């Protein structure tokens, strides 16, 4: 059983990386779709105002704490989260599992060419997994049925959806009954990282819990979105008092 806690009403699973990986691997053996989300503080804040996003997260099967702010909040509120588990790291573990078990993947997301490049890099690193398909993440609503048909016909075991948050969470939630893969996972910019179009913060930033700061340096236009982090911490401290 996964221990599920709540931060500001948003469910998060108190798993470490090993447990997250074990749950994800077990999902491949299930009959119906299992959903994995990787929220950070920005998403927890967005879910305060966005009922569909909150419903989507509540309905997910594995919700990993991808954000150092969530770990700080858990410590302050004594909620019991174990460690930060990033979506991109879990994606790497899942890809390695797919390689061992010769499972197949479909990547949906990113600008034209990015999913294809990500698949090429993944293929080079994990030669035994199967690339069932890929598609860029810029499409119109009317194209969705065709995309889902393509994903289902590809017989992929797992669908990675990188449409950015909260778009990908809502997209998976809305179409979960039509999707026939074993797993759908929201991976945000993970597709860009696998494609090499976006670089991850150096390990020292990751270790110090400063990946957000690195991202702010690299993508300063995101500062508005990132303001949710201090707002989140203030809310946490007030709720403690
Ligand atoms: N993206 C997409 N379709 C869209 C919007 C975004 O495929 O309609 C992709 C975008 O190209 C990028 C990824 O979603 O590869 C993540 O976007 P962002 O950095 O905004 O999201 P985050 O990583 O914060 O979830």
UniProtKB/TrEMBL annotation:
CDD domains: Glyco_transf_WecG_TagA. Keywords: Cell wall biogenesis/degradation, Glycosyltransferase, Teichoic acid biosynthesis, Transferase. It catalyses: UDP-N-acetyl-alpha-D-mannosamine + N-acetyl-alpha-D-glucosaminyl-di-trans,octa-cis-undecaprenyl diphosphate = N-acetyl-beta-D-mannosaminyl-(1->4)-N-acetyl-alpha-D-glucosaminyl di-trans,octa-cis-undecaprenyl diphosphate + UDP + H(+). Pathway: Cell wall biogenesis; teichoic acid biosynthesis. It comes from the Bacteria. Its EC number is 2.4.1.187. One of its GO terms (biological process) is teichoic acid biosynthetic process. It holds the Pfam family Glyco_tran_WecG. HAMAP family: TagA_TarA (MF_02070). Catalyzes the conversion of GlcNAc-PP-undecaprenol into ManNAc-GlcNAc-PP-undecaprenol, the first committed lipid intermediate in the de novo synthesis of teichoic acid. Belongs to the glycosyltransferase 26 family. TagA/TarA subfamily. This is N-acetylglucosaminyldiphosphoundecaprenol N-acetyl-beta-D-mannosaminyltransferase.
